[in-house]
Amino acid sequence: MSEAIVRFGIIGCAEIARKVSRAITLAPNSTIYAVASRSLEKASNFAAQNSFPPGTKIYGTYDALLEDPDVDAVYLPLPTSLHIRWAVAAACKGKHILLEKPVAMNVAEFDEIVKACSENGVQLMDGTMWMHHPRTAKMKEFLLDKAIFGDLKSMHTCFTFGADADFLANDIRVKPHLDGLGSLGDAGWYCIRSILWLADFELPETVTALPGPVLNDAGVILSCGASLRWKDGKVATFHCSFLSHLTMDITAIGSKGTLHVHDFIIPFQEEEASFSIASEAWFDEFVTKWTGKRSEHVVKAELPQEACMVKEFSSLVNAIRTKGSKPEMKWPTISRKTQLVLDSVKQSIEQGFVGVGVLQ
Question: Which CATH architecture describes the domain 6-128+305-328?
Answer without folding.
Answer: 3-Layer(aba) Sandwich (3.40)
